[in-house]
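Section 5.1 Outputs to date
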Amino acid sequence: MQTALITGGSRGIGAAIVRGLAGKGWRVAFCYRSSDAAAQQLALETGALPIRCDVCHSGQVREMVEAAMRQLGHIDLLVNNAGVAWQGLLTDMTDTDWHTVLDTSLSAAFYACREVIPGMVSRKSGRIINISSIWGRVGASCEAAYSAAKAGLIGLTKALAKELGPSGITVNCLCPGVIRTDMLSCYTEEDLAALAEETPLCRLGTPEDVANAVCWLAADGAGFVTGQVLGVDGGFGE
């Protein structure tokens, strides 16, 4: 049975990915930072293994991966989904704000990749999928740190695809557009309607839209796809 580890898996896009993979018969572990109730409910619903972890700390990520491997045996797929946004002028950001966004959205992916790659290399097989953002491709006003972190994930994806390709490991990146998750809680319904109008498909995305793309990249049919940046944005970023 194929196995997967998803970071930031208790809510939103992460939870949809857990559900999508579990529904296709994968054995899944996911980490979360503080949403105990949501994590336990998702575990009951899907049979997935919840692991509490602050992905900003490399030691906790190491312990999280070790816990997942004890239960799963090995990890076939890593989905780096954990992320946090901060909105406001760059000049208003504190050092702490900046590092929180970069550590959660970019450094965490580095920590997790570093832990799972040796096992994938030894098996000459594995998939890594990084969840970036449309803002990592085009940038967003008042979201400079988030845009920078998500752009970093794109660069990490392209570099690792070349580094790990000879070992039979694929590395790809998804760039969701405007997706209805908690990250949009600061927007009014009028703002959301305007964003939907700017999207060629005339609607906002759902977490399931992103999860479906993850499931496709994780499937056998995508075995020759690597180093790619796929927009799941309804055409918003084109």
